[in-house]
Specification:
Elements lengths: L2 H11 L3 H14 L3 E5 L5 E4 L1 H7 L3 H4 L13 H14 L3 E3 L5 E5 L5 E13 L2 E10 L1 H23 L3 E5 L5 E4 L1 H7 L3 H4 L10 H17 L3 E3 L6 E4 L5 E13 L2 E10 L1 H53 L4 H29 L2 H5 L2 H16 L3 E5 L9 H20 L4 E8 L2 E8 L16 H11 L3 E6 L5 E8 L8
Parallel strand pairs: 13-14
Antiparallel strand pairs: 1-2, 1-6, 3-5, 4-5, 5-6, 7-8, 7-12, 9-11, 10-11, 11-12, 14-15, 15-17, 16-17
Helix pairs in contact: 1-2, 10-11, 13-14, 14-15
Length: 492
């Protein structure tokens, strides 16, 4: 028993040592923390009830045993040295273990973490060392769980495709995920702790703080930013880009935090702009096509029919009186009818490829290739799956894509050879049109009023397909289109 404590109890309760000892034993056994005292030989001389509960050893089995019995084997070689160094240091008490965590050994062999402090007391029979121990298994488990959840949350934030940025009330960045690094072009070490306005164009900075202040005052937990309009961010290279954004706020013990989730919509805006341009140009071309068909109908068919009507009236009035002239007139009318029929077929073919209805996709593409070669003098080799027979709208789409691709080759490629491939995979139709022409830079600006390759992509996308264009100046061009076709799209 520590001598000073015994004397204090003796002064309180009188000179009866039995009363003081009983009171001290009660105090020790009522403690929630384990209290273990060892002598200079590191044999246990005091072991309270909380120690019994924590270590699982009854007091009668542990008193007089070496302290090593309560220590995992891997720590035993160094434990004695630590006690001796503490005994010679002259310090009466201190915490034990790195970060105040040491490990104990239960009677069943399981290890557990403890928070421990040690004190020493000089007695007539030598030094006594007392350790007060607290089982911190639940605390460490909670800390580890929190660390695991924090790591998981960090992983989830970094796996997000949208930029996630959190700022404090001073508008300084306290969270900045990997998507934000990628979108803004700034690594996290350059962004954390900095003002949020470095990520926005200068013309928006003046009004930003007032917008955040107003949002904070509303008490609304989250909303979209921009009121339906497009916001703009600023990349590290000074380039501005359009964004969609939402903002939320969270009250914490250290003040409010504001989190914005940002999405770079550059590609979507470009696609919308291109689609609007395409729609406007397509409408222009459609109106032009209507005008062309109307002009051909008027110039060729209407004039021919008018001439035939006039000749028919002449025949009605003069056939009996001028039989030789009537025969000559009829011969001219037959020739005019042949020309009119040919013009009608040509106009109809431009509006709808009748070969698809009459012969099928393969022969129709062969006809396209032959017509291309006759018109341009460039050989065109065709490889079409003979068993491929598509229903509408797939057949017309494939025919028009090949037709448009060959038209592009004829206009721009200056090729000496062209290859057309149409094949079927288990779930799609794949077609390729390649040439050995002069090629082009695929990232070059598209010429105004030219649908070109964009039209091919639009045709493919209308059927949930995709189109890719590979080309280099001087290396030719390859257009590949893949259109998914379910079983209903294949002719029986």
């Amino acid at each position: 028993m520590p001598l000073s404590l015994f004397r204090s109890l003796e002064a309180t309760l009188g000179s009866d040592p039995h009363n003081a000892a009983a009171l001290l034993a009660g105090v020790l056994d009522s403690a929630m923390d384990a209290i273990v005292t060892v002598d200079e030989r590191h044999e246990i001389v005091l072991y309270n009830r909380a120690a019994e509960k924590i270590f699982g050893w009854p007091r009668d089995d542990i008193l007089g045993q070496p302290l090593d019995k309560l220590i995992p084997e891997r720590f035993r070689p160094t434990h004695g040295d630590q006690i001796r160094r503490f005994g010679s240091a002259g310090v009466t008490s201190r915490r034990m273990g790195a970060l105040n965590v040491v490990y104990g050994l239960r009677s069943d062999g399981t290890e557990f973490p403890m928070d421990a402090s040690i004190s020493q007391l000089e007695t007539p029979k030598g030094k006594l060392f007392t350790v007060i121990l607290r089982d911190v298994s639940e605390r460490l488990h909670s800390e580890h769980e929190q660390a695991r959840l924090a790591a998981r949350l960090a992983g989830l934030l970094d796996s997000a495709m949208d930029a996630i940025i959190t700022v404090d009330e001073a508008q300084r960045i306290v969270l900045y995920n990997q998507a934000a690094e990628r979108i803004f072009g700034r690594p996290s070490e350059q962004a954390l702790g900095q003002k949020l306005d470095q990520l926005m164009p200068e013309r928006y900075r003046a009004g930003h703080d007032s917008h955040i202040g107003h949002f904070s005052a509303t008490g609304t937990t989250s909303r979209r930013m921009g009121d339906g309009t497009v916001l703009y961010g600023l990349r590290a290279n000074g380039q501005e880009f359009p964004m969609e954004a939402s903002i939320s706020q969270l009250a914490t013990g250290e003040g409010k935090l504001f989190t914005v989730i940002l999405r770079d919509i550059t590609e979507r805006m470009q696609a919308q702009e291109e689609l609007s341009t395409f729609a406007a140009e397509a409408q222009t071309i459609r109106e032009g096509e209507k005008s062309r068909v109307a002009r051909e109908l008027h110039d060729e068919l209407a004039q021919s029919l008018t001439a035939l009507k006039m000749d028919t009236i002449w025949l009605r009035d003069n056939a009996r009186g001028q039989p030789d002239a009537a025969v000559s007139k009829l011969s001219a009318m037959v020739g005019m009818l042949d020309t009119t029929v040919a013009a009608t077929r040509r106009i109809a073919a431009d509006l709808r490829p009748l070969l698809l209805d009459d012969l099928g996709l393969g022969p129709a593409i062969e006809w396209l290739a032959n017509s291309f070669t006759q018109r341009t003098g460039v050989p065109c080799e065709v490889d079409v799956d003979e068993e491929l027979d598509l229903q509408e709208p797939y057949a017309t789409a494939v025919f028009r894509i090949v037709q448009e691709s060959l038209a592009n080759v004829g206009k721009h490629a200056h090729a000496t050879a062209v290859n057309v491939l149409v094949a079927r995979t288990p779930r799609a139709v794949v077609l390729e049109v390649s040439d050995d022409g002069r090629g082009f830079a695929t990232d070059a600006p598209r010429k105004r009023h030219s649908l070109g390759l964009m039209g091919l992509r639009e045709r493919a996308q209308l059927l949930k397909g995709s189109a890719s264009i590979e080309s280099e100046p001087g290396r030719g061009t390859r257009v590949q289109v893949r259109i998914p076709v379910h079983e209903g799209g294949l002719a029986p």
